[in-house]
Amino acid sequence: MRTEQLEYVAAIARLGSFRSAAEALHISQPALSVTVRNLERELGVDLLDRHRSGARVSDEGRELLPHIVNVLDALDGLRRAADDRHHSARMVRIGTVNAGTVPLLTPTIRAFRDRHASTQVEVVGAQEDEIHRALREGSLDLGLLTALADDDMPPDLESTRLLTGRAVVCVRPDSALAQLEAIGIDDLLSTPLIVMRSGYLMHRLLHRLLAGRTPSVSYSTDGAEMGKLMVAEGLGATLLPDFSVIGDPLERGGQIGWRPLRDDDTEVWLVLRQPRSGSHPRAARNLHAMFVERARGLELV
Question: What is the pLDDT of residues 23-42, one digit of tens each?
């Protein structure tokens, strides 16, 4: 039994004659007739009643036609799924809070593209909850996020720790804070603060450190990259993981710097997450492996 035999019977049933079906299928009428006859012999059932004015489905064929249609629908679904799978294999989507852009994200994507030139990489900046939701829904393949050492890990997501760092204060080199060897909480309260918006780890950590105290001036922004730009423009200081600042082009160019927090040893992790269940496209698995490979060889100074 071949797929085209089922398609031919369905076309004749829909159009009401061999001639109309042959025209629609772009084959000769004799070839169509022979193909359907072969199927009928194989099944041992006359699927069609043939007459001068055309053809109609026989009583036996009427009982089998829903099964034929179901098989064809299933095959169409299989083809669509295969097409979607092929497309997804050519596209890897990664969500990020941007904290790991400098040490991991951009270098790893560059290396991945060198090895997989035909695979596109889509980077989506978002907050932690949004990334987790997209991973669960399947609209993201990987998530690059920050976490504190005492955070509970999502049980339905596989978490791979890539980097371990500390929270530092990102400052402009000509600012008063930059003249200190280490920065305390009272020092932070005395300067304008650039605060990550609610939903980012640094927002949560800063509020834990301030313990209810409020800075005199503050700004709110999305993500580490914008925070560093605002520091470079002299708007204030911000709290970031050290791996987000060290080696940044703005730091290498002398536009931003960093100082450690005094009396604080909170660990900040950079983790890579993906769903525990389901199969992962090969391209996503390869990119995951390359993140791990680069992280193992990375040393912050």
Answer: 888 888 888 888 888 888 88
d(CA 181, CA 272): 32
The correct CATH number of 91-296 out of 3.40.190.290, 3.40.50.2000, 3.40.50.2300, 3.90.1010.20 is 3.40.190.290
In DSSP notation, 170-219 reads EE-TTSSGGGSSSB-HHHHHTS-EEEEPTTSHHHHHHHHHHTT---SSEE
**Two structure tokens written together for 232:** 């470079």
Name, in order, each residue with C-beta under 8 angstroms of 94's C-beta and a sequence gap of 6 or more: 105, 121, 122, 123, 124, 140, 141, 142, 143, 144, 287
Mean pLDDT of 41-63: 82
pLDDT at site 88? 46
Highest mean pLDDT out of 47-51, 80-84, 135-139: 135-139
Each domain of the chain, given as residue ranges in start order, spans 3-88, 91-296
The gap between the terminal CA atoms of the chain, to the nearest Å, is: 67
What is the DSSP pairing of strand 193-196 with strand 157-171?
unpaired
Q: How far apart are CA 31 and CA 33, in angstroms?
A: 5
Quickly state the pLDDT bin for 301 (edges 50, 70, 90).
very low
Equal CATH topology for 3-88 and 91-296: no
The tens digit of pLDDT for each residue in 194-238 reads 999 988 999 999 999 999 898 878 899 988 999 999 999 999 999
Q: Given 1.10.1760.20, 1.10.10.10, 3.40.390.10, 1.10.10.60, which CATH number is that of 3-88? A: 1.10.10.10
Asked whether the beta carbons of 223 and 196 are under 8 A apart, the reply is yes
